[in-house]
Specification:
Length: about 140
């Protein structure tokens, strides 16, 4: 990879596949750790390389996050949808009421299946520190 002058506004990769608008990588752009060795602040990237090395990589990382619930695999195997292939887990921040009983960090992410199953699981809902969810009033 040749380091092209920033003033030329040419993609730093400068290959035959370079197409589209050229964008400057600034401090505000999150560079995935997996690509920090080839992408750095101050580089110019065409839309193809920007998508490949930044957007697609971030999307891939986000889609591969896992539920942190201790019984996720157990709950998942009990689910009716166990044979369905899920493209992406719908992860959400753990409710504060479940942090202590699941012994997870307050920033932990769990899937909605695990959140719902926890409230029905006697291993958890019989504990003294367990707080049931507050139901929303129907209008």
């Amino acid at each position: 990879m040749d380091n092209i002058s920033n003033s030329s506004r040419i993609c730093n990769f400068n290959t035959n596949e370079c197409k589209g608008k050229v964008k400057l990588v600034t401090d505000n752009i999150e560079i995935p750790k997996s690509n920090e060795s080839i992408i750095s602040v101050g580089m110019y990237l065409c839309q193809i390389h920007y998508n490949r090395f930044i957007l697609n990589e971030i999307r891939s990382i986000n889609n591969n996050k896992n539920c942190e619930h201790p019984k996720h695999d157990e709950y998942n195997s009990q689910s009716k949808n166990v044979n369905k292939k899920s493209k992406k887990l719908n992860l959400e921040k753990i409710p504060k009421r479940l942090v202590s009983i699941l012994q997870l960090n307050e920033n932990a992410k769990i899937c909605s299946l695990c959140r719902k199953k926890t409230d029905k699981d006697s291993d958890y809902n019989t504990l003294e520190e367990y707080n049931a969810p507050i139901s929303k009033k129907k209008r």
